[in-house]
Amino acid sequence: MSDEQVRWLLKVIQPEGTLASLPQGASLNREAHAGLLGLPVDIYATELGRMQKEASEAAGALLADPAAASMVDRLPLRKGAKVVAFGDSLTSDPQSWAVVLREMLARRRGTDGISLTISAVAAETTTHGLVRIANVINSRPDWILFLVGTNDARTQGPHPTKTLVHHEETARNIAELRQRVSSETTANCLWITPPAVNEAQVAAHWGLARFGVRFRNEDLERVAGIVRAGDGPVIDVFSTLGSPPPSDLLMDGLHFTVAGQKRMAFEVIRGWSKLQ
Fold first, then answer.
1. Count of domains forming the chain
2. Of 106, 144, 89, 98, whose CA–CA distance to 265 is shortest?
3. Which of 100, 140, 191, 273 is the right S-S partner for 265, CB 3.0 to 4.6 Å?
4. Among positive and negative, which fits the CA dihedral 150, 208, 116, 32?
5. Interacting residues of 32 by C-beta distance below 8 A, sequence separation 6+
């Protein structure tokens, strides 16, 4: 297996999060996770450590920019605030924007005691999110950062006739997520639109093609529009990053390189820091 294939498996499949909801999922060790991916444990551990180091370096590079550091200072977070990043593989990635953001908060505002928990599972739709949101609600967060809906727009096979979740159902699911959070918590919400993809790159990628995955940006834009239409602040990365995003930001046409996740983290802190 090539280094590129190993990295893709660790960034996308993520058995740690995918299996965590099973009765004994949380107790599985690194050897089990590596075995599920068909990797020797030493390669698994080495590559995971390398990716975590790169994410930490991305956080440091962002904080080296005085403007970005000032944005982190201005984030509307009280001392001891509890933040949850909720989503799918774009967020559960070991190099995700949420990982980079957590590192930035620890470095820049470490004395404030702010926690950022990542509640994200690869391949989930907004329907899955409705199942998992109870755990987030029960944790009594101060902020929930939502990046959901990408997999609603996913299609299967070379000639698909439907998305995994119809856009009308996506709208109902997102409305339900908003309603539950507003009625059952005092949390503030920040919504992030799904980004666009490189359609041709997704279709040709060895890993995504194996699972028959396809996307159309017109479907993703429809989901982004649903997110934009809701109440409260929204960070529109679909528009900001372009359709498709620049090639250096994408690993397989869908998931981000560490440079892409770094850019996502920047867009989040830029939009979030403007809120009062």
1. 1
2. 98
3. 100
4. positive
5. 15
